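Hi there,

I know you've been waiting on this one. I reran it after we fixed the sequence typo, so this is the corrected version. Both the input and the resulting structure follow.
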Amino acid sequence: MSESAFEVRRDDEGVLWLSGEFDLAVADAFVKRALANVDGQRELVLDCSELTFLDSSGLRAMLALSSKAAGRTVVVRNPPQSVRKALEIAGISQLGLRVEAEG
């Protein structure tokens, strides 16, 4: 498997687009970056359509973001099948994150 650098970018609507491999190496920096981009939205949307890998550290980072997002709903949007499977196995929707998938 070739490594794909993790990237977070914010669009004009405040959606955070995640791409690459979300693992231990980037988990802490992700939470800080995501929290820095919260500005008044009721929902913090993480578009994961370009995420190629998610491990338990990435899952923990998403949960940490949810707990630190001051009452905002964290939405995980469009995760690819492999990422969706990891989210389902972890029971992420029962832990406070909302998953929205196309189709």
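Quick highlight: The two ends are 28 Å apart (CA to CA).

Best,
R. S.
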